[in-house]
Give the backbone structure.
Amino acid sequence: MAKKKNNDELQPYTEYLEHLSRNHDRSGVFNDFLTIVVCSLSLGRKEDEYRATVGKYTREEVDLFIKAFAALVLWMEAHPLEDAFGDYFQRYISQGHNSQFFTPPAVTKMMAAIIEPKAKEGPVYDPCCGSGRFFLAAAQENRSISFVGGDITEACCKMTLVNACLNDVVGEVYHMDSLRMEIWRCWRIERLPLLRLPYIREIPVARQVSVQESDGASQAAG
């Protein structure tokens, strides 16, 4: 009963971020929250990046990030394969800058239903993945799909990573200019061999082939 009470006391994760934004830039807080979550899902391989990120905040503020992460996980458990970030990002972070308006969930569901994604035909591909809504919609159609996504905004890449990893959807995300095919960072969501738990691993870009060369059977997202 005590555990249930503690869960009930948690606010939506956005409330904790808004509280932090009273003393810090809201966009910076959101980006740092995404970085903290990505590092936490990287099996201890991103400790330096994690420490550099939380080092900008007081102990009390780091506790708010921890509560935000816990609230995010609880929300995702109650809303599987739904986008946890897109609406907040569009309203409070991008505000239409660079025309960053994400495809409505109803449309991504319709797109996924039309293409009928099948794992044996290769991953689902989206060169402007935003918060990963299309991949979540595709996973609703077929839970065994994988994906390849790219976006020019690093925060979008991290939203996709967290949305996918916490929903156990595997694939690759590239921080890149999809028109010029310039790649700056790459992450891969994989599963542990025995436990089958998903985690995030950053891949050195120097070792990567171009997205055009990888998984040539990728299914296009409109």
Observations:
- Strands lie at 124-126, 146-151, 170-177, 182-191, 198-203, 219-220.
- Residues 59-78 form the longest helix (20 residues).
